[in-house]
Structures are given as structure tokens and as C-alpha cells.
Amino acid sequence: MSVETVQETFTLEEILASFKESNRLILWNDETNTFDHVIYCLMHHLQYTETESERIAWKVHNEGKCAILEGSFTEMEIYRKILKAEGLTVSVE
């Protein structure tokens, strides 16, 4: 009995397509940032309205975290770096 193995090759596009298509940017509660700063960052960088930004800030405060944006990993990573540079605690899931 013999075992035959076949080597498969994939293009970069095929590999990337196999990953999750949608990722979420998560904003976490912290003891550092003020409500005003969080609201400003959401309005300035993500173009949320003031009302939407306030709602998100309260959700983060009360629940500990909130998904604030959804999209490709690359897009979420760009926004993560921008918001992290503003001092916010963010991650991509």
C-alpha cells in the first residue's frame, strides 16, 4: 500500500478570500478617556453624529465595549491605528 500526496498551491486572492470577510472594530471602556474625547473621536474620525457618538459612549461605559465599525480587516486596522493614536482602547475582532 502506498500513500500519495498532492501539493496544492493557492493564489494570494484565494487565501485572503478564505478568511472572514467582515471584521468589527471594538471600542473598549477605559479609565483614561473622557466622554467628550470619545465623542469627538467618533465624530471626527468615523463621521458619527453627536447623538450617535453619545449613544456609543454610554454603551461602552455601561457594557464595557461596543462594536463601532464593520468591514475588511485592512480597513478596520487603519481605523484602529487612528483611534489608538487618539488614546482610545480599540481592537479588531
Q: How many distinct helices? A: 4
Structural class of the helices, strands and pairings? alpha+beta
Number of strands: 3
Contiguous runs where pLDDT drops below 50 for at least 5 residues: none
Mind describing the biggest β-sheet? 3 strands, antiparallel
Described by the principal axes of the CA atoms, the overall outline is elongated
In whole angstroms, the N-to-C terminal distance is: 46 Å
- Kindly provide the radius of gyration, computed on alpha-carbon positions and rounded to a whole number of angstroms: 19 Å
Report the average pLDDT across residues.
Answer: 89
Helix content: 40-55%
Lateral arrangement of strands in the main beta sheet:
2-1-3
Give an overview in words:
It is a single chain. It is built from 4 helices and 3 strands. With 93 residues, it is α+β, with helices and mostly antiparallel strands. The mean pLDDT is 89.
Offer a few descriptive terms.
single chain, 93 residues, alpha+beta, three-stranded antiparallel sheet, 3 strands, 17% strand, elongated
List the helices and strands and how they pair.
Layout: H1 12-18, E1 23-28, H2 35-46, H3 50-63, E2 65-71, H4 73-85, E3 90-92
Briefly summarize what is shown:
By secondary structure, the chain is α+β, with helices and mostly antiparallel strands.
